[in-house]
Amino acid sequence: MDDNQESVELLKQISRGSRDAFDPFYEKYSAFIFNIAYQVTGNRIEAEDVCHDVFLEVFQKSSQYQPDKGSVRAWLAVKTKSRSIDRLRKKKPLLIEKLEKLSLQEVQGVDLQFLKEIENHLIHDALVHLPKPQREAIYRSYFAGETHKEIAEIMKKPLGSVKSLIRYGLRNLRKQKSIFNWTESSGGGNRHEL
């Protein structure tokens, strides 16, 4: 029995209510799910919550898995990514944390994919309120996927100026309370003033 067949069999048993099948399934995939959730959210606590949500859904709705649409691993990856993005939408301050982390490094791979998959219209609406040079630098960096060096060449500005435009633009985005829920990431109800 190959690895995927073993997982399919465990899912069948879980769908019949077997807790004995759930334990090895959890052991097999918990690190995999956590890593995806952490890559998307960039936050350990949020990633743990996503893991909990995904495994709860697996336990309650394991019959949703369709073998003809891909492996169990791929099904879990899609489910985890989707739950992670949903969680970011609900906890919008995490979005700004993610953008700030990305501003310190070149945008590539998972980070660029993350930014393309979240609600781009939310950021686009916020960008309208920024000064044009900040808006252009942020757009080029996060939506066009251009490096800071490429942006500097296109905008005919020094590299340091481009980095400053992005940094100040992100600060200005933080001030736009209309696009963020100003609650703590832990879900507390206290409003924060910047």
TrEMBL record:
Gene Ontology biological process terms in this record? DNA-templated transcription initiation
Q: Which residues form the RNA polymerase sigma-70 region domain?
A: 25-92, 126-175
Task: Enumerate the InterPro entries for this protein.
Answer: RNA_pol_sigma-70-like, RNA_pol_sigma-70_dom, RNA_pol_sigma70_r2, RNA_pol_sigma70_r4, RNA_pol_sigma_r2, RNA_pol_sigma_r3/r4-like, WH-like_DNA-bd_sf
Pfam families from the entry?
Sigma70_r2, Sigma70_r4
Keywords, sorted A to Z: DNA-binding, Sigma factor, Transcription, Transcription regulation
Carries keyword Transcription? yes
DNA-binding among keywords: yes
Gene Ontology MF terms: DNA binding; sigma factor activity
Q: Which domain of life is it from?
A: Bacteria
Q: Which family does it belong to?
A: Belongs to the sigma-70 factor family. ECF subfamily.
Q: What is this protein called?
A: RNA polymerase sigma factor
Q: What is the lineage of its organism?
A: Bacteria, Bacillati, Bacillota, Bacilli, Bacillales
